[in-house]
Design a protein that fits this description.
Layout (H helix, E strand, L loop, with lengths): L1 H30 L21 H10 L6 H5 L4 H12 L5 H5 L18 H7 L1 H14 L7 H7 L5 H28 L7 H15 L3
């Protein structure tokens, strides 16, 4: 008798669950408008339905995600901001990062043959030291020690007025090193002289000053 009663209870539960699922499907049917047109992607965070960096940024900020506002507010091209963001996170594809992805190529720096890491390429290599020295002579600020120091302390040493200028200068310097490195690695170009790299960085600063 108890077994039959248990079976009856289970049957009632299953029937109730089935009715609930059917009801949910009916609700979905009410809100889904099936047309004879091709499916399209719609970006729900903007009224136009089109993706924009601004809408994504606003969503991140409104949901409490910590984003470096200084980095995204300076007047440089978006691709350079993304490069800086990758650099800050330590994920740009230097040779040590490629090796972590099972890349088996030469891990030496193309400028000085030390092991290429983010820290080495942008702070310890002779090219990097020369450029940071030039910035030191211009601003009177000692070179940053590492990535964290660059974004957390060094770029905040100019006060409210000059912080954006410092970060822009750092962007030009790092971007110049990265482009020059890529030309040697991928295009098999001869390494530029220190002064050529410096003038290239100044060129980017002049270009971005027009933005």
């Amino acid at each position: 008798m108890l077994l039959e009663y248990t079976k009856l209870i289970l049957l009632v539960i299953l029937i109730h669950a089935s009715h609930k699922r059917i009801h949910n499907l009916q609700l979905i049917k009410v809100y889904v408008n099936l047309l004879g047109e091709r499916d399209t992607f719609v970006w729900a965070l903007h009224s136009s339905g089109t993706f924009s960096v601004k809408s994504m940024y606003a969503k991140l900020i409104n949901n409490g995600v910590r984003v470096s506002q200084d980095l995204w507010q300076i007047k440089i091209p978006t691709r350079i901001k993304i490069f800086l963001w990758y650099l800050k996170r330590g994920v740009i594809l230097t040779k040590d990062n490629l090796a972590r992805r099972n890349w088996n190529g030469d891990k030496s720096c193309c400028f000085c043959h030390s092991t290429e890491t983010i820290h080495h390429l942008f702070f310890e290599c002779a090219y990097a030291k020369f450029l940071w020295r030039a910035v030191h002579l211009l601003f009177g600020i000692a070179p940053p020690l590492n990535i964290d120091d660059l974004f957390v302390t060094w770029s905040k040493m100019g006060g409210v007025i000059y912080n954006s200028l410092l970060l822009t200068a750092a962007a030009a310097l790092c971007w110049t090193i990265w482009l020059t490195r890529n030309e040697v690695v991928f295009d098999k170009c001869r390494p530029k002289t220190f002064l050529q790299v410096l003038f290239r960085g100044i060129h980017w600063l002049r270009q971005w000053a027009r933005l």
